[in-house]
Amino acid sequence: MLSNSDGFDLSLESQEQILPGMTEQMLKALAGSLIVSCQASGNHPMRNTDAIVRMASSALLGGASALRINSPPDVRAVRAITDVPIIGLDKEPGRMRNVITVRPDQAAVLAAAGANIVAVDATSEVTDDIQGHLRQAGIAAGVPIMADVSTLEEGLMAWDSGVGLVGTTLSGYTPYTLRGDLRPDIELVAALSSRGVRVIAEGRYVTPAEVRGAFDAGAFAVVVGGAITDPVAITRRFVAATTRQQ
Ligand SMILES: CC(=O)N[C@H](C=O)[C@@H](O)[C@H](O)[C@H](O)COP(=O)(O)O
């Protein structure tokens, strides 16, 4: 049986390993809603904490229920302007891709900066022990964990460890899920949801119709990032529709 940390169906065995659970307030805030990921890294022109704060304010004005924010300084700055739930993460370059909050100390710093939930890389690419890895992060952070996964197996394992949310964030990014198309993995949302996992649809959502599709597949909430907050990517999409030779 799948167990989870919100107080339902917990065996004694899983209670010994309990992770911080989602509060009712957080669940109410997120259910059925849009979360906007406000991030910019490296040499991106928007890589500036004030710019991130302005993105976050704009997203909130537009009706976002919560925000996903990278790095402790950005989390701290956004926390100062809003009380909505912040999903914090700490991205750093890995071998082939950016990895997401891989160490417990990073999780603790994000929570101290004001993250209500900490997103953690829960892929077999970064750990042989997904459940132990998530428990360490959750215990260090003292706040609920969002497990960012790339496959159904990773998602089920993560959920069973007591995380608050499972995100499809990394589907298409791990070596074993790389694929040609850049579409969101709505099938993974459906597969996780049908097994009782509280799933956040995230990764490559560009159109409102795709967001609707994720909810139809059972998503608890949907995260949209670049399609809202990255003017470079948005411009590229329009330029691709022009007749000028690129
Ligand atoms: C793979 C990875 O590192 N994803 C990161 C996770 O936080 C962000 O770079 C994404 O922008 C975020 O997941 C939202 O996705 P999209 O921008 O596609 O809507």
From TrEMBL:
Keywords: Carbohydrate metabolism, Isomerase. It catalyses: an N-acyl-D-glucosamine 6-phosphate = an N-acyl-D-mannosamine 6-phosphate. The keyword Chaperone does not apply. InterPro entries: Aldolase_TIM, NanE, RibuloseP-bd_barrel. Signal peptide: none annotated. Pfam families: NanE. Its EC number is 5.1.3.9. GO terms for molecular function: N-acylglucosamine-6-phosphate 2-epimerase activity. It is an enzyme of class 5 (isomerase). It comes from the Bacteria. Transmembrane segments: none annotated. The keyword DNA repair does not apply. Pathway: Amino-sugar metabolism; N-acetylneuraminate degradation; D-fructose 6-phosphate from N-acetylneuraminate: step 3/5. Belongs to the NanE family. Converts N-acetylmannosamine-6-phosphate (ManNAc-6-P) to N-acetylglucosamine-6-phosphate (GlcNAc-6-P). NCBIfam families: PRK01130.1. This is N-acylglucosamine-6-phosphate 2-epimerase.
